[in-house]
Amino acid sequence: MIQNNSYKYSQKRYNHLLRVLGCIRVGTLHDFRKSEHPLGIFDSNEGKKQVSHHVENLFIENSNDPKNLNNLDYKSLSEFNAIKIENSRDITIENVTLTKRFNHTNLFILCTSKIKSLETMKQFDGADSCLEIVNPLLFYQELTRAINYIIPSRFLGSYEVTYQDRHEPWNGMDWGKHPALIKEPKYQKQFEIRALWQPLNQNAQIEPIIIGNFKLGQYVKDIVI
Predict the structure, then answer these.
(1) What is the pTM of this model?
(2) Which own/partner contact pairs does 13-17 have at CB distance under 8 Å and 24+ positions apart?
(3) pLDDT, tens only, 3-15
(4) Which of 4, 127, 131, 156 lies most in the core, judged by the most C-beta atoms within 10 Å?
(5) In Å, what is the CA distance from 56 to each residue of 78, 131, 210?
(6) How many of the other CB atoms lie within 10 Å of CB of 78?
(7) Who's near 188: CB < 8 A, 6+ residues apart?
(8) With contact defined as beta carbons under 8 Å apart, do 142 and 219 qualify?
(9) Do 29 and 104 touch, CB atoms closer than 8 A?
């Protein structure tokens, strides 16, 4: 989880409201998929990815042999829930690609950047000002309290975004990067940090919310770029 200071790029009027009155808009993962958002924010694939593994040639002499567990191709069959081969012998699997698709449930998200620069600000269409969050720990504590007044949610932390293709090769251990923390490489100059909140009721229908908490303004300051 990121605890260093970060930077919020936005229009002057919105950053002014945050600094003076503690007003801030907290978005959602699925809301970023809407095309009305400006460049640098809109992404129809937010929260989505797929993980794949290709089995070129796998021969299983005895499916009950413990040595099979050291074979990545063999392990992938159960991890991807592809083929059940218990108590089987002399099986050959050739040229098969296994794929698991992810479409993450909706989350509350606040986006900032770890970089302070004019070039970074230009990545966010319409942004003309910058605030520094000078005490992220207290800032997110206050923001979490404010979100919970509206809808009970758990703060998952703040993390750097990974810029990569949304088609990810299986690493053989887990399902890789969190779907909400992936963006395409074309956005890499944003150096984005995302704070995430999961509603306790994961079936809740959530939308972006406007938070008003005057204490938030104590933990930000204007930055001249």
Answers:
(1) 0.87
(2) 15/129, 15/130, 15/131, 15/222, 16/129
(3) 788 999 999 999 9
(4) 131
(5) 16, 52, 51
(6) 13
(7) 163
(8) yes
(9) yes
